[in-house]
Amino acid sequence: MKTTKHSLLRAFCIVLFLLFLSYTSVYSNPNGISGRTKKTMSAGCGSCHVFGTGITGIIEGPDSVITGQTVIFTLTMNFPGNANGGVDIAARFGILAPGSSSGILKLLNGELTHKNPIVFTTSISIPFNYTAPAVPGTDTLYANIDRNYTGTWNYVDNKRIRVCSSIGIINNETPVSYYLSQNFPNPFNPVTRINFGVIRHSHVKILVYNMLGEKISVLADSEMDNGNYFVLFDASNFASGVYFYRFEVSNGNGHFYSEVKRMTVLK
Predict the structure, then answer these.
(1) Does 167-265 match 28-164 at the fold level?
(2) Which CATH class is domain 167-265?
């Protein structure tokens, strides 16, 4: 009788073990994992997977982002067939967030990974939020993707990002007069640059309006010394169309100068 009980218990344990193997062979790490991208140069998902190019991916989004701004990037995974995928997305300096993919992604140790195995056929695109650092420079997005728990994994090509100051000085030379340049590029998507000149210490405003005359953005509103400046306008959150930007200058001597130009967002 005792031997029979031990046999039944052994058989039950074997069944549970086989069920566990069946589960883990079908699904990617069900809880997600971080620290597996080229940011840390770890072995990717090598502890559970075999490196292979059967699954591929790409990170897509703007090449330039303004300091402190939050924009949307997309990670696309491709596999010729059904898959239960997993991801690990990291940024060198910026801050990541699941954004509209909060049902798919979660934040773990500052990186984004899947909440549950990501079921897809052929390909899937997953948007996520990136907030640029406060200091201008360059940043990098990294990603690692995998297919099934005991399947293959692969690195995604790094995405380089230029982080630009929203406003800066070109040089300290005093222009002949106040001026406002035509934005470049124009039309643009999503970032354009506007140059302007200040001939003496003044309060400077650069405002953006839509076709209805509604103010939609303040690009500059501060005291500035004489010099040649630039400001960036990011239209990521605005629709295609014609917009106007207004340059206003005033100083303590009662002098006032203003100029308006138009620009076109084309998405």
Answers:
(1) yes
(2) mainly beta
CA dist list (Å): 27 to 17, 150, 213: 16, 8, 54
CA 120, 123, 126, 132 dihedral sign is: positive
Tokens of 247: 């340059």
What pTM does this model have?
A: 0.68
Contact 140, 146 (CB under 8 A): no
Per-residue pLDDT of the chain (267 residues; tens, 9 = 90+): 445 555 555 654 554 444 443 433 445 567 788 999 999 877 788 777 889 888 999 999 888 888 888 889 999 999 988 888 999 999 999 999 999 999 999 999 999 999 999 999 999 999 999 999 988 889 999 999 998 877 899 999 999 998 888 888 898 899 999 999 999 999 999 889 999 999 999 999 999 999 999 999 999 988 899 999 999 998 988 999 999 999 999 987 778 999 999 999 999
CATH homologous superfamily of 28-164 equals Immunoglobulins (2.60.40.10)
- Structure tokens that stand for 257 in this block: 């100068």
Q: Spell out the domain ranges in the chain.
A: 28-164, 167-265
92 backbone dihedrals φ, ψ, rounded to 5°: -70, -45
